[in-house]
């Protein structure tokens, strides 16, 4: 795959997925989601960004060093960009789907 001449456009380790690759990835995700649905799983979509205390509570506690932090300008609380979706997925049934 040809890399752009100006590599300074994106941070190291990141790159654009061009149409052919993006379509392959979307197709693979669709196939996996269909397989999970056929086994009775349902889709949830936690936010990429959450208050830090929520992300680091319980099973997410070990991810503190991997968290990219930002300040919420409204509440003045620290927020974190998730490093791993697993703790959020565990939080959803425990707090939102308990019934």
Number of strand elements: 3
Taking the sheet with the most strands, its summary is: 3 strands, antiparallel
Termini separation (Å)?
Answer: 49 Å
The pLDDT mean sits at 86
Give me the secondary-structure category. Answer: alpha+beta
**Uncertain residue ranges:** none
Q: Main sheet: which strands, in order across?
A: 1-3-2
Shape by Cα distribution: flat
Residues in helices, as a percent range: 25-40%
Radius of gyration: 18 Å
Number of domains: 2
The proportion of strand residues reads 5-15%
Order of helices and strands: HEHEEH
Enumerate how many helices there are, as a single number: 3
Structure description:
This protein has 99 residues and is α+β, with helices and mostly antiparallel strands. The protein folds into 2 domains: 7-38, no CATH class; 49-95, no CATH class. Helix content is 34%, strand content 11%. The protein is built from 3 helices and 3 strands, in the order αβαββα. It has helices at 19-38, 52-55, 86-95; strands spanning 49-51, 68-71, 78-81. A 3-stranded antiparallel beta sheet has the order 1-3-2. Strand 2 (68-71) and strand 3 (78-81) form a beta hairpin.
């Amino acid at each position: 795959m040809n890399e752009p001449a100006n590599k300074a456009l994106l941070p190291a380790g990141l790159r654009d997925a061009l149409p052919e690759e993006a379509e392959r990835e979307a197709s693979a995700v669709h196939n996996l989601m269909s397989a999970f649905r056929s086994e009775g799983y349902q889709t949830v979509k936690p936010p990429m960004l959450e208050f830090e205390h929520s992300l680091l509570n319980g099973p997410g506690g070990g991810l503190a060093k991997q968290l990219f932090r930002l300040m919420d300008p409204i509440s003045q609380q620290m927020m974190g960009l998730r490093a791993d979706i697993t703790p959020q997925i565990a939080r959803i049934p425990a707090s939102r789907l308990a019934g």
